[in-house]
Structures are given as C-alpha cells and as structure tokens.
C-alpha cells in the first residue's frame, strides 16, 4: 500500500460520525464541511508526498554510479516515480472535482441516476460520483466493451 492512499481514518481525526447526522438532511452544509475538510487534507497529503518523492529522486540522481545494476535500479525508480506521480495527479483531479461538486451542492449524489450515494460509501470513497448500482453497471459495461476508462474512483 502506497503512502498516498486514502484512509477513512481521516474522518475519525475530524470526528465525523455519520450516525449523529441521521436526523439532519443528507449532505447538509455541516456534513459537506466535513467532507471538504477530508478532501483538502487528502490533497495536501498527496502534494506533500509528490514533493517528497521528487526529493528522493534527486538524491538518487546524485548517487548514481557507473555500476550497471545501479543504473537499472535507478531507471526502475524513475518509472515507479512516474507512475506514482501519474496516479497522484489523477487522484488530485478527482479530489478537485469533488470540491467543485461540494460548492455546487451536488456532492454525494449519483451523477447517473441522481440518488443519494450514502454516507457509508462516501466515507469509504470520498471521490465517488456514482451510487453502487450505477458503478457496478458501468463496470459490467466496461468489461464488455473492453474499455477501462472509468477504472477506479
Ligand atoms: Zn446511480
């Protein structure tokens, strides 16, 4: 598991408890504030992680010797680094999309059928934009068409 992977423990940190929210309106202003906080914390972690990764890479460059196995390791590190950055960039993009949805008041609702996605799923995946039914349906469709565009959320 990579360090930038999201953890729902962030919600414990900000003391968000969906059960306490049952009486209030779904995705009320108070609740979306919690989600906003988590998304921003997550984004900060990702950016810090990206910067740290770059530092490590720079340190590696200065240590590369003419040893052929060292160079192979170095190239492997570069490709790992590039892939990690790519994944981080995509995640940050999704987080930004989530923040826009919060501002628009559409956060937490399925963009396919419009139903409430639910706190359980939103806490597990704060970047989710589809309810579990639509997500499952789209995954089946993807498998059929062989496209992996939507991949993970
Ligand atoms: Zn749906």
Detailed description of the structure:
This protein is mainly alpha-helical and 153 residues long. The protein folds into two domains: 26-107, DksA, coiled-coil domain (Four Helix Bundle (Hemerythrin (Met), subunit A)); 108-153, no CATH class. Helix content is 63%, strand content 0%. It contains five helices and no strands. It has helices at 9-13, 29-63, 68-104, 119-124, 132-145. Helix 2 (29-63) packs antiparallel against helix 3 (68-104). It is elongated, with a radius of gyration of 19 Å. The two termini are 17 Å apart. The model has no long low-confidence stretch (mean pLDDT 84). Zinc ion (ZN) binds next to helix 5. The site of zinc ion has 8 residues, from helix 5.
Annotation, overall tally of beta strands: 0
Report the end-to-end length measured between terminal Cα atoms: 17 Å
CATH class category of the largest domain: Mainly Alpha
- Low-pLDDT regions: none
Please trace the helix and strand order, writing H or E for each element. Answer: HHHHH
Integer tally of domains: 2
Please work out how many helical segments DSSP would assign: 5
CATH topology of the largest domain: Four Helix Bundle (Hemerythrin (Met), subunit A)
Shape: elongated
Strand content: under 5%
The whole-angstrom Rg is: 19 Å
